[in-house]
Amino acid sequence: MASLQLRRESSMDQQESPRSPEAKLGMKVEDLWGVQEPKLSPNEKLNACFESIPVSAFPLAPQGIEIKSDASLAEAVQILAQNKILSAPVVDVNAPDDATWIDRYIGIVEFAGIAIWILQQSEPPSPRSPSSPSGTYFAVSINGMTSAVGLGTLGPEDASITSGDFFEALTSSKFYKNTKVVRDISGTFRWAPFLALQKSNSFLTMLLLLSKYKMKSVPVVDLGDGKINNIITQSAVIHMLAECTGFHWFESWGTKKLLEIGLPTMSPKEIIKCECRIWALSGSNCLAFLAMFPIACLQLNLLFSKRYLSESLFVYQVHEDQPVLQAFKLMRKNRIGGVPVVESGGKKAIGNISLRDVQFLLTAPEIYRDYRSITAKNFLIAVKNYLEKHDKRSPMLSGTVTCKRDKTIKELIQTLDSEKIHRMYVVDDDGNLEGVITLRDIISRLVHEPHGYFGDFFDGVLPLPENCRV
Questions:
Q1: What segments bear the compositional bias annotation Basic and acidic residues (predicted)?
Q2: Any alpha helices (H) in 165-233, and if so which ranges?
């Protein structure tokens, strides 16, 4: 009883002077938590609390960065990199001044799409996949390739396909400078129309979209407005949770250890090396299909992710002597945001490469010119040296952040938030990889989808663009 009283007093102190807008939001959840039916389980209570709070209550993002539809790829990369963001909405420059948001915005450009474009420029022509004639010619001439062999699984002997001067030559070419976001590469992005929430939609809806339905960010709009009101990201939700320490609802969940809430979701035997043939542990037919034919329609992706891909089954990884483009190819093929770089012949991670790191291939291509080839290890070394001179606060300088299975979910959230990272690798006592925990994994353990919750929510809102290849 004394312990309970102390926790209540601590919570009351927080309610009197919330630390931040996120803490004020946590206080709303706390108030709702206290009036829920006693017979409800803690998880059901959280669901009920978040269903009662409109998404408009979420703190506004500090800045609304947008990219114009006539921008070049180089300009888009610079905007994303300078503002340290993963994606941004694209505004149609031809839209009338009084256009509503659905007519004003074309879609969202993100580093995932830029990675796809880079892979297309580095690959030789393939009879089964369309490619830009200029890009194909550029890749062949720069890399000295004479045969049309697909990228496949690249090994150390193929590392010359990403020679040290490749990206410096690419970014200085007229081809790169004249490549437009909409005209030339719109099909590689999460394109129109993007799925947005109304301000009256619930917190629970937003949390489910960011977790179970694998959306990295969710725009919030007013139907009659011409602009996006807010963009809520997975990182923003994790920051909100980090600010809610001390509240009863958070402590009852956050003090549990990772194993108690089913994280990580794989055993050591399920860690798959990237150079091996990957066999699905469940839903094998679905995963084989996804590997062969990348899903372009988000509506179809939602269906498959819900039924077969709700758990992280593998830790995809690259070895330090493999080409860096193999890391981005793995991310593209398996629809993941990052992969660990492991030492050759071992299971210890020496670094991490994420989708956002593709920017360093285009914004600082000169840092690789002294390398005969850009392997994953060379990439990590070059980027680290570059950041030590230009951005000492970058998360990449923190090294590989790991944890063990006995860590609590609260400790994990605090580390992810303070380090500004999107995943943490779980290791054993010897430092060998055992699993990975992402922001999405954490949010998915906070709430659950009630039966029939979304109904026809997704119907008719996600048509497929003709040139979409994602």
A1: 1-11
A2: 166-171, 174-177, 181-185, 203-210
Answer for the pair 362, 80: CB distance below 8 angstroms, yes or no. Answer: no
Of 185, 180, 76, 75, which is closest to residue 132 (Cα–Cα)?
185
Nearest to 111 by CA among 420, 360, 384: 360
**Exposure of 12 in the CB half-sphere (CA atoms within 13 A):** 6
The C-alpha atoms of residue 77 and residue 79 are separated, in whole angstroms, by 5
**Tokens of residue 61, six digits:** 């993002």
Residue with tokens 């009662």, as numbered in its chain: 52
Closest to 331 in 3D by CA, of 413, 209, 258, 436: 436
CA–CA distance, 463 with 445 (Å, rounded to integer): 30
CA 428 distance to own-chain centroid: 25
pTM assigned to the model: 0.79
**Spatial distance between the Cα atoms of 58 and 22, rounded to a whole number of angstroms:** 8
Query: Which of 282, 234, 218 lies closest to 446 in space, CA to CA?
Result: 234
Please answer whether residues 92 and 70 qualify as being in contact, where contact means their C-beta atoms are separated by less than 8 angstroms.
no
Q: Please, what is the Cα angle at 329 between 324 and 330, to 5 degrees?
A: 100
Distance CA(73)–CA(19), nearest Å, equals 40
CB 371 within 8 A of CB 447: no
Ranges of each domain in the chain: 2-53, 239-446
- Cα distances from 307 to residues 212, 261, 286, 377, 462, in angstroms, run 10, 20, 10, 36, 19
pLDDT 10s digits, 301-347 = 433 333 333 334 467 899 999 999 999 999 988 888 999 999 988 88
Domain at 239-446, CATH class: alpha beta
Nearest Cα neighbor of 188 from 332, 83, 320 is 332
